[in-house]
Amino acid sequence: MLAAVPRPRALFGALLCLFFSLVSSAQAPMNATASANKHLVIIGASYAAEWENPKLPGYTVTNKGIGGQESSDLLARFDRDVIALKPDTVMIWGHYNDVVRAKPENMAAAKKKAQDNYRSMVEQARAAGIVPILVTELTIPIPDTIKEKLMGLVASVLGKNDYRTQKNTEIKALNVWLRDYAKAQKIQLVDLETALDSGNGTRKVEYTRSDNSHVSPAGYEAITKYVVAQLG
């Protein structure tokens, strides 16, 4: 007796069910990965703002950087721009403006204020169940050229300090404190000062725009690559 041949309509229905089953199976891992992404908020000044929304595997990024701000400004809006969003993680980046705007006679107070602001933001984040990540600040580039070395030598003979050297000294001092604080508090640290260093203790020139301050596209590429490795 011959086996029954499936009717065309029944065969089509079976194939359609098989197709949708395969599509559903293929999409499941992608949907699961997307839903597993952690929400990361970046808060800072212009360096953070111009990083925009970097592609960090495993994270959905919200950038809350605002140009021109100091750490006190970050603290003032921390509840609105971080706590209210209920992210998993917050990356806190920004004491550059605290240092470059402070007069020499006010520098010690400015650095202490920045330290207090960092502590307050970390405490607020942890109280809300948000994991903080701290970021060391970028230095001002000083090209490693003969001209720069001669200018530095002349300045030292005349008893003068280069503006960039003065500010870098204070930026790096706060970075040292930030590293020690992060270690003591068991907080992850993203060490951008070290990652973008030229080898002479300052930021690579190619990582800086023509204003000798803001980060160039190459700089942001280097930052993203480094941060991806750290978060990974």
UniProtKB/TrEMBL annotation:
SUPFAM superfamilies reported for this sequence: SGNH hydrolase (SSF52266)
Keyword S-adenosyl-L-methionine found: no
Keyword Signal: yes
Domain SGNH hydrolase-type esterase as annotated: residue spans: 55-222
Signal sequence bounds: 1-28
UniProt cross-references to InterPro entries, sorted A to Z: Ester_Hydrolysis_Enzymes, SGNH_hydro, SGNH_hydro_sf
Keywords noted in UniProt: Signal
Protein name as catalogued: GDSL-type esterase/lipase family protein
Lineage, uppermost ranks: Bacteria, Pseudomonadati, Pseudomonadota, Gammaproteobacteria, Steroidobacterales
